[in-house]
């Protein structure tokens, strides 16, 4: 294979001479073709996960499509891993606004600590979580009304033929409801009016016994109970309104029920106190040397997760996982490869620094270096381009010409400042240049409009050339991402306390280009 691809570049000049073969080589060495990934379905099956996921509220009701897709897929996997490892505590590194954290706590009843270095993100997560609980209550209320309307509709569509049997069934249901109440569970009677069970009183034959009828009713009640609890079970205690205390039925309570509720109430409050605040947003900067016990006082056996952890944070997540015995599993999806620190990018010796790349001993021994341009290319989204979501050629062209201007006019070749999203705010190329110069703290008064436009006219005929160059970078992007991800996987394979580790494609790459998760589980004895 190496011999086949050797003719991609000229032997003497190293210039690209065969674009078609270049594209084939890039595809050949992409992660999807190398056969090193473990299918998500196989992982869930091995963990005995439910491929259909938990029943409950879908995240697309309060997230955009991309985030909803990511959170729903990843949370199901995290819950499966947590169940397999027998743990209930999750640490979400780089949690941001808490989308994944809050969903894990509410949908799967996991105790989640979301840690982010930005206090504004943490404060936003607190506020968002407060609003989210109100959303869950509203959804819960809608679910209750929906169940009522469905039951009434069924009742109205069936004739009432035996009111005596209906009364018997209602009494049976009331007894069952009291039994449920004694166990501190939701009272189904409060959710569905008794008339909805009249359909169960319809006898198919005159010889059907009362025992058969009661048995059928209890089966229907169980089914209905499961439908109700499917909605309610996703909520933490402090997010659930206790239907058993509904004001509608207060006047109908017998003395025995009132006494029972007075006994149950302290237990319910205690349970709510212990289970409330299942999601804790915290502000802290995570490094490879971070001591989690300094941040989380009740740290117990747990797993670490990270949804699009930026730059070195993904690498540090894996290092903390391997070093801390309390952390039994990790599921990390990295992003922002261009922000990774590289050990061999600069010639300066920094023996004490912990680098984001490389992580594994093999690449360290080889002295491997990607460089910023290659890491920038790794962030591009080939799958999106393949379905017609083209690169922003004009904004890239503006940026390229701007760099020529600041080098030739101002003599600046490197700056710690960034232009940012100036293009979307600019009305023209002249406006773009002047806005950018102000951001870079360069004096734009020495640069007349005519000079700016001269640069534009000088290079505009090369815009197609720039587009072709960027398309080649897009084609190469998966190969560079492979190198970074395999480096992380090899690092885990080098550790003696890891029972299993792998790369898993979690997301649709069109919806979420950074779609690969690095997953590992420790030996049970560790």
UniProtKB/TrEMBL annotation:
Top-level division of the source organism's lineage: Eukaryota
Pfam families: Methyltransf_32 (PF13679)
Domain Methyltransferase, residue spans: 66-343
Protein name: MET25 protein
The organism of origin for this protein: Peucedramus taeniatus
């Amino acid at each position: 294979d190496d011999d086949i691809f050797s003719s991609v570049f000229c032997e003497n000049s190293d210039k690209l001479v065969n674009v078609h073969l270049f594209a084939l080589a890039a595809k050949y060495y992409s992660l999807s073709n190398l056969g090193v990934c473990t299918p998500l379905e196989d992982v869930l099956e091995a963990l005995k996960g439910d491929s259909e996921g938990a029943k409950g509220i879908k995240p697309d009701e309060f997230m955009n499509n991309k985030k909803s897709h990511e959170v729903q897929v990843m949370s199901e996997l995290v819950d499966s891993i947590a169940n397999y490892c027998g743990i209930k505590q999750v640490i979400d590194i780089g949690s941001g606004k808490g989308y994944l954290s809050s969903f894990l706590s509410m949908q799967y009843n996991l105790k989640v600590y979301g840690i982010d270095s930005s206090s504004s993100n943490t404060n936003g997560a607190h506020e968002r979580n407060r609003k989210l609980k109100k959303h869950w209550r509203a959804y819960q209320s809608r679910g209750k009304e929906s169940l009522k309307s469905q039951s009434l509709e069924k009742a109205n569509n069936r004739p009432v033929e035996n009111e005596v049997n209906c009364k018997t069934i209602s009494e049976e249901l009331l007894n069952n409801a009291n039994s449920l109440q004694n166990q501190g569970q939701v009272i189904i009677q409060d959710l569905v009016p008794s008339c909805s069970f009249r359909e169960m009183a319809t006898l198919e034959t005159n010889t059907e016994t009362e025992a058969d009828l009661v048995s059928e009713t209890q089966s229907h009640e169980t089914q209905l109970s499961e439908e109700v609890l499917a909605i309610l079970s996703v909520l933490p205690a402090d997010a659930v309104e206790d239907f058993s205390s509904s004001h509608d039925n207060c006047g109908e309570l017998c003395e025995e029920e009132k006494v029972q509720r007075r006994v149950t109430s302290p237990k319910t409050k205690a349970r709510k106190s212990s289970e409330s605040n299942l999601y804790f947003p915290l502000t802290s900067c995570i490094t490879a040397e971070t001591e989690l016990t300094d941040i989380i006082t009740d740290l117990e056996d747990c797993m670490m997760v990270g949804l699009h952890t930026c730059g070195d944070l993904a690498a540090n997540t894996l290092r903390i996982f391997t070093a801390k015995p309390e952390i039994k599993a990790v599921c990390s999806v990295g992003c922002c490869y261009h922000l990774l620190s590289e050990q061999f990018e600069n010639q300066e010796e920094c023996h004490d620094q912990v680098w984001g790349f490389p992580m594994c001993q093999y690449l360290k021994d080889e002295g491997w270096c990607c460089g910023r341009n290659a890491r920038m290319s790794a962030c591009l989204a080939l799958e999106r381009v393949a379905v017609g979501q083209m690169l922003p050629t004009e904004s890239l062209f503006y940026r390229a010409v701007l760099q020529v201007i600041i080098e030739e006019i101002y003599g600046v070749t490197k700056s710690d400042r960034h232009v940012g999203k100036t293009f979307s705010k600019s009305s023209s190329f002249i406006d773009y240049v002047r806005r950018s110069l102000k951001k870079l703290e360069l004096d734009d008064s020495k640069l007349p409009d005519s000079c700016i436009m001269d640069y534009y006219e000088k290079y505009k005929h090369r815009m197609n050339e720039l587009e072709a160059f960027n398309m080649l970078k897009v084609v190469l992007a998966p190969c560079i991402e492979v190198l970074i991800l395999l480096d992380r996987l090899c690092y885990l394979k080098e550790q003696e306390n890891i029972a299993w580790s792998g790369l898993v494609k979690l997301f649709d790459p069109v919806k979420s280009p950074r779609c690969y998760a690095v997953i590992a589980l420790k030996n049970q004895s560790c």
